[in-house]
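User: Reviewer 2 asked us to show a designed sequence for the structure in our supplementary figure. I'm pasting the structure tokens here. Could you produce the per-position amino acids so we can include them in the response letter?
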């Protein structure tokens, strides 16, 4: 019995769903005004929601144009996004919100992330369930999305949800305890979380693939070689970011403790099997541990 060919993707883009997603995402971002109405144009020492909406929509248009141009080149050559390009897409997406924290403020950055969560997640529902393209579908495919038609891009969705939990938790926790240099410290701890997760996961994959011979007792799909490769990279990232030259209130002892705990957390949460997507578990677990430890410094 021959397999029936899969239903082709509709090449006609849906203007309705494209605008629906953009409008709702803008509304979610504007919800930051419920925290403080003064955030509308200029927040305390930072840009406000109004300017955030301008920047986000400009970046969206830029993303669509660049993505569609790249999609044409990739499609003509019969290529698809590689595992490395997908991982870099996820890491860069996560780091982008550290820029938003600096330019706007942590609360506005958090609502921007919620808007992006909705846009990305709802795009996957429409694309997968209704087999309909939007104007940014080709950009996703070219810049990171897996090439299989109608398959949810769970890796990036779960990573984005993890970013949201981490940024929200760290923001409200640091604000509640009147943390040292609140916005700057948040940027450092958030960047450390993304890098320990993203680069550490890549190191674990490389070490496990090439040298992994000793399986973990709690997860036979992972190896000790991958675990220690992940942990080593995480500790190195911690030593670079948590030192006293960057965070003046961190003592040498806490510098080393934070680096070791960050690397260990990244390796453990990447290797443990909690029946959830690894990207969600690793980034969320690492971010929660680092956030709590920073409050104790």
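Assistant: Here is a per-position design you can include in the supplement:
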């Amino acid at each position: 019995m021959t397999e029936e060919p899969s239903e082709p993707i509709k090449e006609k883009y849906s203007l309705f769903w494209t605008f629906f997603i953009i409008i709702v995402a803008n509304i979610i971002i504007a919800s930051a005004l419920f925290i403080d109405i003064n955030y509308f144009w200029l927040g305390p020492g930072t840009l406000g929601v109004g300017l955030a909406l301008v920047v986000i929509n400009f970046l969206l248009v830029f993303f669509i144009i660049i993505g569609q141009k790249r999609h044409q080149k990739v499609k003509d050559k019969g290529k698809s996004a590689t595992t490395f390009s997908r991982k870099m897409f996820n890491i860069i997406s996560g780091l982008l919100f550290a820029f938003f924290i600096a330019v706007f403020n942590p609360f506005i950055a958090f609502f921007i992330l919620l808007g992006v969560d909705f846009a990305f997640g709802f795009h996957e529902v429409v694309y997968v369930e209704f087999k309909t393209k939007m104007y940014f579908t080709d950009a996703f495919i070219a810049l990171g999305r897996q090439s299989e038609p109608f398959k949810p891009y769970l890796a990036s969705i779960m990573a984005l949800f993890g970013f949201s939990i981490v940024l929200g938790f760290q923001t409200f926790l640091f604000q509640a305890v009147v943390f040292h240099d609140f916005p700057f410290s948040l940027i450092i701890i958030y960047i450390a979380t993304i890098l320990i997760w993203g680069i550490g996961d890549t190191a674990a994959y490389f070490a496990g693939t090439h040298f992994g011979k000793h399986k973990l007792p709690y997860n036979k799909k992972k190896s000790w070689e991958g675990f220690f490769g992940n942990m080593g990279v995480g500790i190195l990232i911690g030593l670079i970011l948590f030192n006293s030259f960057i965070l003046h209130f961190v003592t040498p002892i806490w510098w080393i403790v934070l680096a070791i705990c960050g690397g260990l957390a990244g390796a453990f949460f990447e290797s443990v099997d909690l029946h959830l997507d690894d990207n969600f578990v690793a980034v969320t677990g690492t971010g929660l541990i680092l956030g709590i430890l920073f409050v104790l410094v």
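For the response letter, you might also mention the following. Residues 1-10 have pLDDT under 50 and may be disordered. The chain is about 70% helix and 5% strand.
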